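Key result, reporting period 2: structure in, sequence out.
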């Protein structure tokens, strides 16, 4: 017990103070791209869940009779707004699927370092836009 316990400690930097962000500060807050990818993944999941009722009603209407199918065609194919909504849902499906695969890989503790997380987040956005564009181009 001859060690000198009263030796001075090295100076340390002051710890940062974290506080909640107020509503007025939201416009100034920049979320990193992996955070944006995660939030968009949640938003697309919610959008798919909410629109599922609409899509199932449209499917039921189109399968019920020939008149229902013609009504479906008039609603969807004759209306440009309906086409834009369906393209948005197609993007939501592709983005949610690709981002879900990314999250599953990250659950294995891979792709967690910041440069790789940024690169995979950009790749998810780019790949889902590309897949959506290819499907729309093929079906149009």
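The corresponding designed sequence is given below.
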């Amino acid at each position: 017990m001859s060690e000198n316990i009263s030796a001075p400690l090295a100076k340390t930097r002051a710890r940062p103070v974290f506080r909640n962000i107020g509503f007025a500060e939201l416009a100034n807050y920049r979320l990193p791209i992996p955070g944006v990818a995660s939030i968009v993944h949640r938003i697309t999941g919610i959008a798919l869940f909410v629109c599922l009722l609409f899509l199932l009603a449209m499917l039921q209407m189109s399968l019920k009779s020939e008149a229902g199918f013609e009504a479906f065609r008039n609603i969807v194919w004759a209306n440009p707004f309906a086409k834009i909504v369906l393209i948005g849902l197609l993007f939501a499906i592709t983005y949610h699927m690709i981002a879900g695969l990314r999250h599953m890989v990250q659950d294995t503790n891979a792709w967690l370092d910041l440069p790789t997380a940024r690169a995979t987040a950009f790749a998810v956005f780019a790949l889902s836009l590309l897949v959506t564009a290819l499907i729309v181009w093929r079906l149009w």
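The chain has one domain: 33-139. DSSP finds four helices and no strands in the chain. This case is discussed further under Risks and Mitigation.
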